[in-house]
Amino acid sequence: MEKTIKLNSISLDDFKKLSKGKNKFHNKFVYYDNYKYASIFEASYAKYLNLLLKAGEIKGWKRQVPISIDFQDIHICNYICDFVIIQKDDLLKYVDTKGYCKGSSYNIFKLKKKLVKAVHGINVIEVTKGVDCNFLEKN
Fold first, then answer.
1. Mean of all residue pLDDT scores within the chain
2. Is residue 34 part of a domain?
3. pTM summary value
4. Smallest Cα–Cα separation from 91: which of 69, 114, 123, 67?
5. 115-135 pLDDT per residue, tens
6. C-beta of residue 75 within 8 angstroms of C-beta of residue 62
7. Residue 2 within a domain
8. Which of 123, 119, 108 has its CA nearest to residue 73?
9. What are the angstrom distances between the C-alpha of 127 and each of 1, 10, 73, 101?
10. Total domains in the fold of the chain
11. What is the CATH number of the domain that holds 80?
């Protein structure tokens, strides 16, 4: 029999202890360059982007960029893009890192990716782990 805890019956401090260090994908949060990332893979990609920036291959990048998905003045949902890269020609590249490409969370991502494309015309690139921990891009 599962034990159910009612949130209104415990203190906020106790709730934080129960949920400490966990996220919805069961990854460990990682800090890199004073920012918190949802996974080691996401932090590694941020490090990779910093190397590209220092080498002059890109102009800049932003992390955790919110994109509102609205249709006919109705707010549907928000999509948080892991990275938006400002390329040398000032074009923007939208990237989402994916370490695990299965399950309901991934299905929700695929749906939001399609909505972002339909509503804003933005193609979000998925970056996954390849052989030898290289970054693989797929549309």
1. 82
2. yes
3. 0.75
4. 123
5. 999 999 999 999 987 655 566
6. no
7. no
8. 119
9. 40, 40, 32, 11
10. 1
11. 3.40.1350
